[in-house]
Design brief:
12-stranded mixed sheet, about 10% helix, about 325 residues, 5-stranded antiparallel sheet
Length: about 325
């Protein structure tokens, strides 16, 4: 009988001890719950427009005060070279923008960006890299690949450029192609009409080779750099299904209009920001520590940085 009573006391003690696991935390000890302005803008002397995206962060506890994260009523100003301009909001693209002709971006110049929505204000500065790289050569080819929807043709590209000696450099390679092809308009062969259209397709980089579209010249000053292999898939034959279920394939008569290859000489902040975003996207291990996203916006979040762009256009 005593043994049963002893066991009962242990069970009751365990049940009541659960209360000690509950800890009350004062609201003053919780992290800040207010949202912050998030600003993103990358300027270049070669860009046709200056664009600034302004949103707000989602608080750790609670909800954002607006129905959308895009801030539409901000005052966005940029200054540099003894001039200051106010960027206007474009509702179509949902960003603040101004034409290059109204505020030219100059290499080696330092620019300041300020954003305010009446309650919150943030600032940041950046300096445009002085030099452009020299693209020494490139290799173009085609590849016939098997994809989920069947075989497809890709245009491949690889670039080699010369590092700018005597300075620290951070590079990003980009490329896209303008392709003209045919589509059919109509519902059946009796009213099909061929129409020529033109679209731009991005080149995607394969970094499995050990090279990346982001590179730097640490311990490699003055050497030649090689891009990873880039692939751009060309439009495949389009399938049309008529009202009676008959299927038709349109030969698209592909024509490459231009291949635009770019090597950007970027600020370190531009490089660090994009690299941190990439590392966050590639963290598949649920036990891995999160990577902090680079931030150079004082009072807020995001990145304001510059790059000097070098383009090489191949026209068949």
């Amino acid at each position: 009988m005593k043994a049963k009573i002893f066991i009962l006391l242990i069970v009751l003690t365990g049940l009541f001890s659960c209360d000690t696991l509950i800890t009350e935390i004062s609201p003053d000890d919780l992290p800040e719950t207010t949202s912050k302005l998030v600003v993103q803008s990358f300027i270049s002397p070669q860009a046709t427009r200056i664009n600034v995206v302004v949103t707000e962060s989602i608080p750790l506890f609670g909800e954002s005060s607006s129905s959308t994260s895009v801030i539409k009523n901000a005052v966005v100003k940029m200054s540099g070279g003894g001039k200051e301009v106010t960027l206007l909001y474009d509702s179509t693209s949902q960003l603040y923008t101004i034409e290059k002709t109204k505020f030219p971006i100059v290499a080696s110049e330092t620019y300041k960006l300020s954003v305010s929505d009446g309650k919150r204000s943030v600032t940041s500065t950046c300096t445009v890299p002085a030099n452009q790289v020299t693209i020494k050569s490139y290799v173009l080819d085609t590849a016939y690949l098997s994809r989920r929807n069947g075989p497809d043709t890709a245009l491949t590209v690889k670039m080699i450029w010369q590092d700018i000696p005597g300075e620290s450099n951070y590079y990003r390679v980009r490329a896209n192609m303008d392709v003209e092809y045919s589509i059919l308009e109509g519902t059946n062969p009796d009213n099909f009409e061929e129409k020529r259209v033109r679209n731009r397709f991005s080149i995607n980089w394969d970094d499995n080779s050990g090279r990346s579209d982001f590179q730097n010249d640490v311990n490699l000053d003055g050497t030649s750099f090689t891009s990873p292999l880039g692939r751009g898939f060309l439009p495949s034959s389009l399938l049309y299904t008529s009202s009676d279920g008959t299927k038709y394939y349109a030969k698209q008569k592909l024509k490459l209009i231009a291949l635009v290859m770019e090597v950007n000489n970027t600020e370190k902040s531009y490089y660090d920001y994009h690299q941190s975003l990439r590392l966050n996207d590639r963290t598949d291990n649920p036990f891995a520590e999160p990577v902090l996203v680079f931030n150079n916006i004082e009072g807020g979040l995001g990145c304001f940085a510059a790059y000097n762009n070098k383009q090489l256009i191949y026209r068949p």
